[in-house]
């Protein structure tokens, strides 16, 4: 597996291109992502969204129209592709596939596991490919996603952190913003974040 990373837009949202067996998966094409994506793929097969916030889906439509590939988005966030809850003028896009819960799928022979971790958004998910998590805005290096946005939930964030705490395997984490980390490292600080979230709910 080869992973290319490029931060996009004012929010420096990480866009990823994951190449396996000569096939390219595009994860979270944010603001201004299209040219970089087009310049760095040879055989694109899908656009994968971790969640529906504008800075992760801004170029969905443009990339899809340019490359003719389907969009996969967690079902709980599909409405955000049409109506940004943060008031941004996001170009609207449509999910070709709505991912339900912890859904496993295979795209062009590539096994992919979505894991739903609600809280930041109703559909906030990580995308697991082999031993890597593309964590969107659920987990960052020593931090977690905000739970004070419209449609966010502190109660769900606590449940999601507890769910992540119980996972025994380790994974390399590539987050939606910032540097990579590992699940084991982030599990060390999850009790702190659980308490921080609980203080606000």
UniProtKB/TrEMBL annotation:
<dbReference type="GO" id="GO:0046872">
    <property type="term" value="F:metal ion binding"/>
</dbReference>
<dbReference type="Pfam" id="PF00753">
    <property type="entry name" value="Lactamase_B"/>
</dbReference>
<feature type="domain" description="Metallo-beta-lactamase">
    <location>
        <begin position="12"/>
        <end position="177"/>
    </location>
</feature>
<protein>
    <submittedName>
        <fullName>Hydroxyacylglutathione hydrolase (EC)</fullName>
        <ecNumber>3.1.2.6</ecNumber>
    </submittedName>
</protein>
<keyword id="KW-0862">Zinc</keyword>
<keyword id="KW-0378">Hydrolase</keyword>
<dbReference type="GO" id="GO:0004416">
    <property type="term" value="F:hydroxyacylglutathione hydrolase activity"/>
</dbReference>
<dbReference type="InterPro" id="IPR051453">
    <property type="entry name" value="MBL_Glyoxalase_II"/>
</dbReference>
<keyword id="KW-0479">Metal-binding</keyword>
<dbReference type="InterPro" id="IPR001279">
    <property type="entry name" value="Metallo-B-lactamas"/>
</dbReference>
<dbReference type="InterPro" id="IPR036866">
    <property type="entry name" value="RibonucZ/Hydroxyglut_hydro"/>
</dbReference>
